[in-house]
Amino acid sequence: MFIQELTAHCTLFQGVKPETVKDLFDRYGYALRSYPEQSFLAMQGEACRSLFILCHGRVNASMINREGRQIIVEQFTDWAVLAPAFLLATHNVFPVNIETTSPCEVLVLNKDTLLKMLHADLRMMENFLREISDKCAVLTGRLNSFALKSLREQLLQYLHTREHYGKQQEIADRLGVARPSLNRVLQELCHEGIVKLERGKITLLKRSLPKTDS
């Protein structure tokens, strides 16, 4: 059942037959680990020696600077492949903390095991390379967004691309800003009738993004 779900939902095994995956696992081995809520799969600066696939649960990937300021870089849920680009990097360390926000089940493939599997199955190798390429493309888009957009534009983009919003502190962490700065922009948007704030809950009233100067 586990392998059926893996081949059906995880991008790394897309198009690979379940019996092929079972054979690869039997031949080269794997680990399936359980983590409680608020535990760390990996720490920022720690050597990346294994590939993590989040089978079930939710995790946050966050960065912390020397002053202790934290930014939530990404949030992952079922069947996500975590930090694939860093496993084979020359400087193979995790750039983020990966912390569970719910109980999680994680498939762990160490570097040597993964390389043997990729060598044995061309489709799996293509999937792995595509996974890295897609994540690089997403990262490039985000860098462009953060480098060129104001906090107002970043916040509007955030609100328009989600159906549900966290608390203001969670949004501030995600955007990498101080909460008072975020609150100031929220108040401006509230006065303009774009959002509504009620008991700390944010409601987006206008779903169309305003045009901005390029």
Trace the largest sheet across and list its strands.
1-8-3-6
Structural class: alpha+beta
Largest sheet: 4 strands, antiparallel
Give the end-to-end Cα distance, rounded to a whole number of Å.
50 Å
Gyration radius over CA? 20 Å
Chain-averaged pLDDT? 88
Helix content: 40-55%
Order of helices and strands: HHEEEEEEHEEHHHHHEE
Strand content: 15-25%
**Strand elements, count:** 10
Uncertain residue ranges: none
Given the structure, what is the number of helices?
Answer: 8
From the spread of the alpha carbons, the general shape counts as elongated
Question: Notable features of this structure?
Answer:
alpha+beta; 214 residues; 10 strands; 4-stranded antiparallel β-sheet; 8 helices
Descriptive report:
- By secondary structure, this protein is α+β, with helices and mostly antiparallel strands.
- The chain is about 45% helix and about 25% strand.
- It has eight helices and ten strands.
- The protein has a four-stranded antiparallel β-sheet.
- Helix 4 crosses helix 5 (about 120-150) and helix 7 (about 170-175) crosses helix 8.
- The radius of gyration is 20 Å and the shape is elongated.
- About 25% of the residues are buried.
- The model has no long low-confidence stretch (mean pLDDT about 90).
Nutshell version of this structure?
By secondary structure, this protein is α+β, with helices and mostly antiparallel strands.
Show the helix and strand layout.
Layout (H helix, E strand, L loop, with lengths): L1 H8 L8 H11 L2 E5 L4 E3 L7 E7 L2 E6 L5 E7 L3 E3 L1 H4 L9 E4 L3 E7 H10 L1 H27 L2 H10 L7 H8 L3 H13 L3 E4 L2 E4 L10
Antiparallel strand pairs: 1-8, 2-7, 3-6, 3-8, 4-5, 4-7, 9-10
Helix pairs in contact: 4-5, 7-8
